[in-house]
Automatic annotation (TrEMBL):
It comes from Candidatus Aquitaenariimonas noxiae. Its cofactor is [4Fe-4S] cluster. Transmembrane segments: none annotated. This is Radical SAM core domain-containing protein. Residues 87-318 form the Radical SAM core domain. CDD domains: Radical_SAM. Keywords: Iron, Iron-sulfur, Metal-binding, Methyltransferase, S-adenosyl-L-methionine, Transferase. SMART domains: Elp3. Pfam families: Radical_SAM. One of its GO terms (molecular function) is catalytic activity.
Amino acid sequence: MLPEQTIMNSLIDIVVRGEGEESFLKIVTALKCGNSLNDIPNIWWKDNDKVYSTPTDGLINLDNLPPLPYQLLDFEKYIEIPQTNLPNCKRIIEVYTERGCCHRCGFCYNINMHQCKWRALAASKVVEQIECLVKNFVLDGINFNADNFFVDKKRVADICAGIIKRKIKISWQAGCRIDYFARYDNSFIDLLIKSGCRKLNFGLESGSQRILNLIQKDMNLDDVFKVNAKLKKWQIRVDYDIMAGFPEETKEEVLQTYKIMFRLHHEYPKATFFGPYIYTPYPGTPLYDKCLEMGFNPPERLEDWEILNGVGKHIYHS
């Protein structure tokens, strides 16, 4: 997000801005052959204490990337401990089948990093990848690690149908949006479950409608309770992501969030929560600019951003 700041760190020689697969290969090739870095897009680098950069290129077409060579990894190190994710599974792995998000949440890095664009592997490639992983590494759980797995409902349906058709025996979880799931009919939810969907994650963020509007979440609290009831009916486990410390947020609004958390869990005991996380102002996002207006002093060095992460020391912006 801040390559010009990152490159100033004494431990860093080259920075790739954005996605790294294509640029990284070109960097390695150039260094190996002793060639210049001038023709490689999306990079910043240092040479004799001078900083150089090249123009940014477009986003990568994911279908043009080769299959990941999982066989080169010590795969067992990547097996997740089930914990609460998929409690009936013993061997779970994260897979990445899409990037970005088409929505405009004011706190999210996607606005800067992916320009609110969503890209995904074709459903057929996703099914092939899952089948290969399950067969070669004896998996029983898949975590679709994505900012918004359900953007394309037909693609999700095709993935589910492919899993069922190929008789791939897995449980899986993914992230969804409240406003999406509120619109889903019984036949689609039934398809999700038959393909192995056992858990969904939703970005609830706040129990205050005013804050939801401020952060451009484009959802309403009435749908939250409808979705929670749907999940209970279908016995799909759920995690809600919660945040606090937004600019202008009041103590009363934070308490509203806690009250909604208690209500959701009371109405559906399998509802659990991540957070509340403390809001982090990411450069290039609408809320970041608002924080600057309110007097936020952003870190001037790469290492100073550590104090603003989700588990470290925080600055409250309200």
